[in-house]
Amino acid sequence: MGAGAAKKKSGLLILEADEMWSFVGSRREVWWVWVALDAETRQVVAMVAGDRSESTARCLWGALTGEYRRRRSSSATSGWRTRR
């Protein structure tokens, strides 16, 4: 395993998701950056950029490795309902 590579975890995996906005190009275009973090290690496990829609949230979910998608208990982000 290379330096900085994540070790496989056992037990419950807890993710934290958050989003932040920024202007891209002209100040008229707002983009959202969505980030999923492993709550224990603080490692970024997925990231996407887009609008603040359910479609972009689904893209973040799709960017997660299978291990995180299979072993999750629940996930939530500020202002969004919890999804099981």
The main pleated sheet reads as: 3 strands, antiparallel
Give the uncertain stretches in residue-range form.
Answer: none
**How many H/I helices?**
2
Radius of gyration: 14 Å
Query: Major sheet: order of its strands?
Result: 1-2-3
Please report which band the strand proportion falls in: under 5%, 5-15%, 15-25%, 25-35%, 35-45% or over 45%. Answer: 35-45%
Cα separation of the termini: 32 Å
| Average of per-residue pLDDT values | 78
Helix content: 10-25%
Oligomeric organization of the protein chains: single chain
How is the secondary structure organized here?
Elements: E1 15-24, E2 26-38, E3 44-50, H1 54-63, H2 66-70
Antiparallel strand pairs: 1-2, 2-3
How would you explain this protein's 3D organization?
With 84 residues, the protein is α+β, with helices and mostly antiparallel strands. The chain has a domain at 15-70. It has helices at residues 54-63, 66-70; strands at 15-24, 26-38, 44-50. It has a three-stranded antiparallel beta sheet, with helices on one face. Strand 2 and strand 3 (44-50) form a beta hairpin. The model has no long low-confidence stretch (mean pLDDT 78).
